[in-house]
Amino acid sequence: MELKGIHHVSAITANAANNYHFYTEVLGMRLVKKTINQDDPSVYHLFYADEVGNPGSDLTFFEIPQAGRTYPGISSISGTSLRVPNDRALQYWEKRLTEHNVDHDGMTKQGSRHVIHFRDSENQRLTLISDETNTGVKGGKVWEHSNTPADKGIIGLGPVTLTVEDPAPTIKVLTEILTFREVGGYSSLDNDQDDIRVFATGEGGTGAEVHLEVRNDLSKERPGRGSVHHVAFRVDNEDELAKWKNRIKKEGIPNSGLIDRFYFKSLYFREPNGILFELATDGPGFATDEDVDNLGESLALPPLFEDRREEIEANLKPLDTIRPHHSVWSCCIQRCSNWFR
Fold first, then answer.
1. Among candidates 14, 123, 20, 18, which has minimal Cα distance to 65?
2. Domains of the chain: residue spans and CATH
3. Which residues in 201-251 belong to E strands, given as ranges?
């Protein structure tokens, strides 16, 4: 058994409409699924990804309208990376973020890779990372209707950063229970030492790394809007996931057991520093209940919730996610404009 890389990252937003605008209009990602938090169907769960939501490209958000601010600290997933094709793409993004008044630090280096650290309006800690030198897990493909160029858009999730006070128990889980191996390190922005340790799994590369930061000057993070809820790692199929369940149980780690999320199967557990990990299967995928061309345009409910649709929709604040290019009217306008050229 070997984990294949990052599957998805799930974070918290207090405003689904603003979140949708930022990740689709500013970052050019595709909303591939508008659904509910299956553990709390009164709130949205939004999935942003590449053209079809390939495993390793999904950045997801639970809407919690009452969420307060995040107080960053240890025992947290303190950073999420988004992959772009190369260094030239980062130059494009530096200009784009500035034009959209997005708070960013400009282009810099993270080890041997070029990156741009930035924040959304809720201070979600994000990084654009270049795949210029990537030789590991391949990225996805930018959606053809994205408002970013196909050769510069976001193609998947990059490394996640974990911040802990005591690294030893986390490293033990990563290397002795999961299938990560230490592959290097780099210095943080305010330190000349290689204080960030890098662990990789599977084919390695930007799509299969966890970066571990040790901080002794922070208290435990108080999560809120702009914080990360959990990170999920890729498992090939359900049979393999069952083996992972047995392995984790054998290690004496409490876990959720196998859970059917409809779009994938999952297993959850916390590593010793309290960070929530998920193992998730690559399939069946987001086209299970929607046509690929219309992913994310309507409220998708797993079969378990379908008989409660009327109740669920009544409790959700309407969120219009129909893309203009899909409407009959816009198609007619486009055809008419072609006729009169």
1. 14
2. 6-315 (3.10.180.10)
3. 209-214, 228-235
